[in-house]
């Protein structure tokens, strides 16, 4: 294997350590313990696992944690009332509504996310935080793309001046990734399903980020020799088999550094959520 393996657990441990240290310092200086509330509506099993893992991470780092479990038939009004209560709760600094919402509430997703106070929006999905990120102001930033950037920085992979190509234009990964890379002075191209000559574009990338949701989409011929390849895809191809968007076995022979799936950037998301919760607590204290 030619490429250096960028293992999520090493970076996640460093990020958690930093979040834990900052939380202790905050507590010492101000007496405030960072608090995270996670709302889950319904009984999606994958979401229940995520919520349990978030609660566990909070407990391990000494954060205050509240899990709000609402039934499948919760109305929009009831959900908004819960968000309002948490917006006004002084012990809570971060609020996350676990997605996807049950079918009946999905058409209200924007309304639900916009009901969260932008200062407590640790997912970074509120339009105020999106706008702040785009205009280069201090913002709460979506955890997965922010984790990818933190990983590049910790791994010492230069971003400034690099040609970065992002495949996928979702609000959760592609678009924030574009803005985070741009704010660090990369030259960024974003590709999507209508992009012409995709392989020609991606093979110029020093940093290639795949966030398309298609197993094995990025093949070796699309990757420049020595490039850093970040695979954000999580595709379940069999009951117990997860793969990314990158044909790992072939691409690792060409790339300079590569993240595996599982065991790659997925592990950074909860660590960054902890970091965002500390950021949110500090922002609320400093006004
Ligand atoms: N479901 C899967 N990933 C996420 C995420 O990052 N945030 C929220 N709120 N829900 C999710």
Question: Can you tag this structure with a few keywords?
Answer:
single chain, 287 residues, alpha/beta, Rossmann fold, six-stranded parallel β-sheet, three-stranded parallel β-sheet, 10 helices, 41% helix, globular, binds guanine
Number of helices: 10
Low-confidence stretches: none
Gyration radius, rounded: 19 Å
Helix content: 40-55%
Largest sheet: 6 strands, parallel
Can you summarize this structure?
With 287 residues, the chain is an alpha/beta fold. Helices cover 41% and strands 16% of the residues. The chain has two domains: 31-120, Leucine Dehydrogenase, chain A, domain 1 (Rossmann fold, 3-Layer(aba) Sandwich), CATH 3.40.50.10860; 143-267, Rossmann fold.
Task: Describe the 3D structure.
This protein is α/β, with parallel strands linked by helices and 287 residues long. It has two domains: 90 residues, 3-Layer(aba) Sandwich (Rossmann fold), CATH 3.40.50.10860; 125 residues, Rossmann fold (3-Layer(aba) Sandwich). Helix content is 41%, strand content 16%. It is built from ten helices and eleven strands. The strands form three sheets. A six-stranded parallel beta sheet has the order 1-11-8-7-5-6. Helix 6 packs across helix 10. The protein is globular and about 50 Å long. 44% of the residues are buried. The structure holds guanine (GUN). Guanine binds next to strand 4.
Would you spell out the secondary-structure blueprint of this structure?
Layout: E1 4-5, H1 8-30, E2 35-41, H2 45-61, E3 64-70, H3 76-87, E4 94-97, H4 109-115, H5 127-134, H6 143-154, E5 163-167, H7 174-183, E6 187-191, H8 198-202, E7 207-210, E8 228-231, E9 235-238, E10 241-243, H9 248-251, E11 257-258, H10 268-286
Parallel strand pairs: 1-11, 2-3, 2-4, 5-6, 5-7, 7-8, 8-11
Antiparallel strand pairs: 9-10
Helix pairs in contact: 1-10, 2-10, 6-7, 6-10
